[in-house]
Design goal:
- This protein folds into 3 domains: 262 residues, Beta-Lactamase (2-Layer Sandwich), CATH 3.30.450; 82 residues, Helix Hairpins (Orthogonal Bundle); 172 residues, 2-Layer Sandwich (Heat Shock Protein 90).
- It contains 19 helices and 19 strands.
- The protein has a 5-stranded antiparallel β-sheet, with helices on both faces. The protein has a 5-stranded antiparallel β-sheet with strand order 9-8-12-11-10.
- Strand 10 and strand 11 form a beta hairpin.
- The longest helix has 93 residues.
- The protein starts with a helix and ends with a helix.
- The structure holds adenosine-5'-diphosphate.
- Adenosine-5'-diphosphate (ADP) binds next to helix 16 and helix 18.
- The site of adenosine-5'-diphosphate has 20 residues, from helix 16 and helix 18.
Length: 694
């Protein structure tokens, strides 16, 4: 048997198939093996049974045949002992004696009855033509025994001549033409003309007890159909054979059927047919009994053959009984077929039950397998669900679900942790970023402070030195005008110019000093409404606004006052407004806006001010240096101090100032001022400031 590759592969992968194969293998291998054994044993038992049956049939037939034989002997013995015979012997009327013998023979069913003298010479006989001398008969074993005083009965084979000597009719009756028979030993004769007889002889005594002769009788068995029919009737009584089998009985002389109820094809008795050479050799040749199946005339018969032995111990024929095998064999086969069918049915039912059962046993495992595959495909919610089985596998499936639930809970927890961790990392990163920012700012401030410190030192000295001569110039100019009076009129214009330039020098020096010593200019702080300050600044710079074609827009939304020195805030805003106007020489829009400064939680920190213009904007490379002192793009007209002073002022109160710009579109300055000023927001810068101011 070959197992297809696909099935083998499935067998390797599936536990159910493996265990199923394990359970079914004994059934599928055992049942055919059992059937084979049952078939073999059944055959053997059948053979033994039929052999036993035919053997017992043969015994019965033998017993009956013996009874018939001894019955003939007893009959003749009784005649020999009868007074009728003794009286007749004494009367010695030969003719009457022969008639009496004839009568006795007929009455007792004997084919011949002879009276012999004590030497074995036939004196009288039953045959009508006893004129024919029968001769001396002492050579027959039965006769010699009777002469010796003992009655004896044997089966004997008579030659045609000896039959004819007794009675010519016997020879005729005995003659049986041979019928050619398949499988028989070759025989050139055309007929069996010998006779087989039950021969018996009994001593005859006179009234004084002296033996006066011997009574010899015989019954011809050739064609004795009555005998075989009786044997058959006794051995195979009606109903003794099952299923339409037919019993048969036969007497053989040599190998030829001389009395039989075996029928030929036409229903005629198979007289003259012969036994197979195998049976002949075993039974007649070796003297063994044959028991088994033999082909008889035209069919297989379960047969029993035994040799028939004559008075000299010679095998002269056979006794046979048997019955037709085909119906029995058919019944046996039918029984076997029924048995096989039952086996096959039981196996099929068993297999089907096994399959069903296995399916119910493995249902939880298969469902678990499906769930695993679903989970591999990403269906995290796949579960085995309730299973009907309450055995270990059923409990395993429940545990499996439980395990999966635990696993997803853990996974969910892990995910939550991961998200939390991500948030924390992001928060820390942001904090780090902010720290970096403030660090950078601190660095910038530090750098600025250092610069301011250096510049401050220098500027303060220079300013002092310049202020005094300027004061002298201005003082002397006034003196000059007073002294000259009208004489100064022709140079009035020059004096005015000198006066103007001296003022400008004073202004620059004041700015320088303000930058160098901002503390000197700072006044007290107060809660300032930024909207009011912006409005004031607009007023203060109105003459500059009027010169240009600039539209001013205000959006005051701040509600929170901030802590700062009002005039310093004004200074910062005016500086930003003027810068914006200078960036829009051909006009544009100036927007001034304010709003509350809210932290991420919505808490009010202070106020935001925005000064937005639509001017030429700031080049990106300048954005980083715009708050540096002395940075200017305005050549002679600019000092580069406005933004750096504004930066210093705002930072001093803990505020912020920043700028964004798109070149060609404008710039936006944003100031953040605290509701409560924080003066030590940048301790390093404050430290430098203080150090520098001292
Ligand atoms: P000054 O105005 O004397 O040059 P500031 O410190 O006020 O000095 O300004 C520094 C420089 O910043 C200016 O020279 C100018 O180039 C640039 N700047 C300031 N405000 C603006 C603005 N609103 N638009 C374009 N550039 C500006």
């Amino acid at each position: 048997m070959t197992v297809p590759g696909g099935l083998l592969a499935r067998l390797r992968r599936s536990v159910r198939l493996k265990l199923l194969a394990l359970v079914l293998a004994p059934l599928l291998i055992g049942v055919p093996a059992l059937l084979g054994l049952v078939w073999t044993w059944g055959n053997q038992a059948y053979e033994r049974l039929v052999t036993f049956k035919v053997s017992s049939d043969l015994v019965t037939a033998h017993e009956y045949f013996e009874r018939v034989r001894s019955g003939v002997g007893r009959d003749v013995q009784a005649i020999a002992d009868s007074s009728q015979l003794v009286v007749s012997l004494e009367a010695r009327h030969d003719a009457a004696f022969a008639v009496m013998l004839e009568d006795l023979a007929r009455r007792h069913g004997l084919d011949y009855l002879l009276f012999l003298d004590v030497h074995g010479q036939a004196i009288a006989g039953s045959a009508s033509d006893t004129a024919v001398p029968v001769g001396a008969r002492q050579d027959w074993p039965v006769v010699s025994a009777a002469i010796a005083g003992s009655p004896r009965t044997t089966i004997e084979r008579f030659s045609p001549e000896s039959l004819a000597a007794i009675k010519p009719e016997l020879r005729t009756r005995a003659r049986q033409p041979l019928v050619p028979t398949q499988g028989a030993a070759p025989d050139t004769r055309l007929a069996e003309d010998r006779g087989m007889l039950i021969q018996t002889a009994a001593p005859v005594f006179d009234a004084r007890g002296i033996q006066v002769g011997v009574l010899e009788a015989g019954v011809l068995l050739n064609g004795n159909l009555d005998l075989v029919d009786r044997i058959n009737a006794i051995v195979y009584r009606d109903g003794s054979l099952p299923l339409n089998s037919r019993g048969t009985a036969t007497l053989f002389l040599g190998d030829t059927r001389i009395a039989t109820n075996v029928r030929l094809f036409e229903g005629e008795r198979a007289l003259g047919t012969r036994v197979s050479s195998a049976v002949k050799e075993q039974v007649l040749g070796r003297g063994d009994i044959w028991l088994g199946t033999a082909f008889v005339v035209n069919d297989d018969y379960v047969s029993g053959y035994e040799p028939v032995v004559d008075g000299r111990g010679e095998r002269i024929g056979m006794l046979y009984v048997g019955f037709l095998e085909a119906p029995l064999r058919a019944a046996f086969h039918a029984a076997m077929a029924a048995l096989f069918a039952v086996f096959v049915l039981i196996s099929a039912l068993g297999s089907a039950l096994c399959l069903r059962w296995a399916r119910s046993i493995f249902e939880p495992i298969e469902r678990m397998n499906r769930v695993m595959q679903a989970i591999e495909k990403g269906e995290a919610g796949a579960r085995v669900g309730p299973v009907s089985s309450r055995d270990e596998l059923g409990r395993l499936a429940c545990e499996f679900d439980h395990l999966l639930d635990n696993l997803s809970a853990k996974q969910y927890e892990l995910q939550r942790w991961a998200t939390e961790l991500d948030h924390k990392v992001a928060e820390r990163t942001r904090e780090l970023h902010e720290t970096n920012e403030s660090l950078r700012r601190a660095q910038r401030q530090l750098a600025m402070s250092e610069k301011l410190a250096a510049i401050g030192e220098l500027t303060a000295g220079v300013a002092h030195e310049v202020n005094n001569p300027v004061a002298v110039i201005q003082g002397n100019l006034d003196v000059l005008r007073d002294v000259l009076g009208p004489a100064a009129r022709p140079v009035d214009e020059e004096i005015r110019l000198i006066q103007e330039q001296a003022d400008r020098i004073r202004q620059i020096v004041t700015k320088l000093l303000q930058f160098a010593r901002p503390g000197d200019f700072a006044g007290y702080t107060e809660a300032v409404n930024v909207n009011e300050v912006v409005s004031d600044c607009l007023l203060l710079s109105s003459h500059s606004l009027e010169k240009r074609d600039v539209v001013v827009e205000t959006r005051f939304m701040a509600r929170t006052p901030v802590e700062i020195n009002r005039s310093e805030l004004q200074q910062v805003l005016i500086n930003l407004i003027l810068n914006a106007l200078q960036a829009m020489p051909d006009g544009g829009r100036l927007t001034l806006a304010s709003e509350d400064w809210l932290d991420e939680h919505g808490g009010v920190q202070g106020a935001v001010l925005r000064v937005v213009d639509t001017g030429h904007g700031i080049a990106p490379e300048n954005l980083a240096t715009i708050f540096d002192p002395f940075f200017t793009t305005k050549k002679e007209s600019g000092t580069g101090l406005g933004l750096s002073i504004s930066y210093t002022i705002i930072e001093r109160y803990g505020g912020r100032i920043g700028v964004t710009s798109t070149p060609g579109e404008g710039a936006q300055f944003e100031i953040r001022l605290r509701r409560d000023a924080v003066f030590d927001a940048t301790p390093e810068a404050q430290g430098f400031m203080r150090r520098w101011q001292q």
